[in-house]
């Protein structure tokens, strides 16, 4: 009977434990939701004054040559670029909190992937050419149409290609769209190759973590938020795909968005 007693005690203890665990989980879920709502609200509130700062510094800067001397002009440009950086950070944070809260609205439809790649390329080409980089797009003759969310797809490709340009000082950046071989639903790859600084092997694991800026210690590190890849990978997952990469320090990187098949 002592066996029975201890079995009963075990059972009631387990019940108590399960109940406590459930309560803790509920508390955690509530705290998490509060955090997401807070972040979303804050991001929104912060953007309005920031846009005013960016707008007015822009106006002041345009009054060239105006009453500003070179030093003042330089300082004003710093104000502007800091504000822009902050805005980018806030926008990324808002996106991350939306994704984590499951609040991203995706609209799946038939999307012409080449059109998306071409749009991103058109938007980023001036930046690449401005740095003296060769910039090209490769795509098959036949259209590649996937059932996906156009905005998310565009944002991912924009982030990957933007990074490639940012972290490349000479050589080229290229965007390649291709259909992956295999039976079943069509699968596609959008790859961004660069001949940039690359990523040391020791940093490969942390690349997709939030706020990871593995080259930040380098002098002249281009500024960024360290959220772009984190966000892109989350979006890729929402699209049923993923981002993979290969990279060699000093040689360049290759980031692939793999989509479809699901
Ligand atoms: P960031 O806003 O800093 O670009 P990301 O999340 O997009 O943030 O990227 C994280 C880090 O990964 C970057 O700071 C950079 O160190 C590294 N990285 C990303 N893409 C490349 C690339 N194409 N070449 C070299 N390093 C890269």
From TrEMBL:
Top-level taxon in the UniProt lineage: Bacteria
Domain Histidine kinase span(s) in chain numbering: 41-262
Coiled coil: 14-41
Keyword Nucleotide-binding: no
A GO molecular-function descriptor: kinase activity
Keywords, alphabetical: Coiled coil, Kinase, Phosphoprotein, Transferase
Protein species of origin: Pelomonas lactea
Entry keyword annotation includes Kinase: yes
EC numbers: 2.7.13.3
First-level EC class: transferase
Residues of the whole record sequence present: 231 to 492 of 492
Protein name: histidine kinase
Transmembrane segments: none
Catalytic activity: ATP + protein L-histidine = ADP + protein N-phospho-L-histidine
